[in-house]
Write a sequence for this structure.
């Protein structure tokens, strides 16, 4: 599925504006229960990260954090298309992807707060969320490092014949890292069951990806070099993401090799909580905030016959879950100093092994 380039407008000073026709996928063959499930996940991601931001401003979140507010449709769409035993690999902006795999809110929130009841006992923090139980194989702070690791997981699944698929998410800046090209080449040569997903929010850290990249679409325009199809999708349309995800995952599961998907999206805030994001044109920010994936998806569900009251109930239930997770996370103990010497080795110890 390729989003026509004409669907995006290019404004002054290189600003990239969102597509204009969001009703394209209203008639897509997607079960309504799947769609309401996607809506719930969108709400969980948005309300959870909004609360995480509030807690950060209260200086309760330890270290920095990288929020995906405005980008939730990618995690929700892929999460709905994945099998429970598939693998997710994410960047340091991994809160939404962790929730997409069904990890409960309380341990995720507690991990952000550095509490002992956190997902990683308070020692991993925002940028290293991992839950092998849920197929969340880690958030990685080193740019591009996890693409080759995702290949390893995919190769293991291929060797064992399990039908599992590895889905690897990364930002647009990663496409200019050597590991991106190495991973795509390797996956293509060995026809690995892996799906690479570029979350192109148009900016790396503080620099527009277009300013330092020779091609217009940093991921999709390079796909042909590895024998892969060029796929650019609307990353703010959860249905477009779900359809592309389902097709790519089915292809990988059938032994037809990897796919590369570039999902165009936009982060509402800066790169991290320390970044006010003032380098972006104001009209570009305003246009993308108006193209917010959650109210757009809610409007679609209403057009498809879902009652507003049902969606309001989902919103309320999620709000209650976030409140409970916040209370339980704050109530958690701080890790003991001795805990720094556990989980260093696979056997749980810290002593040097001969």
């Amino acid at each position: 599925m390729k989003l026509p380039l004409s669907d995006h407008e290019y404004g002054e000073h290189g600003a990239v504006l969102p597509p204009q026709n969001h009703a394209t996928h209203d008639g897509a063959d997607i079960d309504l229960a799947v769609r309401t499930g996607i809506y719930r996940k969108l709400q969980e991601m948005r309300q959870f990260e909004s609360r995480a931001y509030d807690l950060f401003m209260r200086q309760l979140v330890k270290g920095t954090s990288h929020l995906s507010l405005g980008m939730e449709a990618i995690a929700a769409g892929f999460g709905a298309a994945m099998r429970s035993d598939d693998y997710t690999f994410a960047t340091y902006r991994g809160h939404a992807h962790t929730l997409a795999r069904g990890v409960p809110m309380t341990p995720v929130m507690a991990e952000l707060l550095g509490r002992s009841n956190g997902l990683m006992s308070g020692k991993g923090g925002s940028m290293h969320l991992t839950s092998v139980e849920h197929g969340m194989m880690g958030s990685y702070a080193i740019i591009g490092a996890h693409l080759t690791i995702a290949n390893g997981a995919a190769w293991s699944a291929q060797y064992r014949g399990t039908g599992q698929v590895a889905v690897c998410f990364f930002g647009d800046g990663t496409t200019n890292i050597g590991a991106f090209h190495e991973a795509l080449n390797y996956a293509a040569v060995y026809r690995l069951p892996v799906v690479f997903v570029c979350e192109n929010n148009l900016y790396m850290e503080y620099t527009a990806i277009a300013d330092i990249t020779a091609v217009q679409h940093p991921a999709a325009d390079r796909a042909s070099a590895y024998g892969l199809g060029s796929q650019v999708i609307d990353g703010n349309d959860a249905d477009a993401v779900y359809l592309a995800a389902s097709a790519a995952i089915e292809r990988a599961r059938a032994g037809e090799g990897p796919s590369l998907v570039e999902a165009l999206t936009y982060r509402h805030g800066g790169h991290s909580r320390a970044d006010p994001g003032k380098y972006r044109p104001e009209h570009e920010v305003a246009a993308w905030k108006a193209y917010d994936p959650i109210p757009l998806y809610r409007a679609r569900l209403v057009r498809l016959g879902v009652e507003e009251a049902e969606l309001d109930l989902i919103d309320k239930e999620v709000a209650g879950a976030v409140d409970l997770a916040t209370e339980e996370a704050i109530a958690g103990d701080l890790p003991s100093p001795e805990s720094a010497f556990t989980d260093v080795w696979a056997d749980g110890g810290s002593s040097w092994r001969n």
Observations:
- Residues 91 and 284 are 25 Å apart (CA to CA).
- The beta strands are 9-10, 16-17, 87-91, 136-140, 166-171, 194-200, 232-234, 259-264.
- The first strand starts at residue 9 and ends at 10.
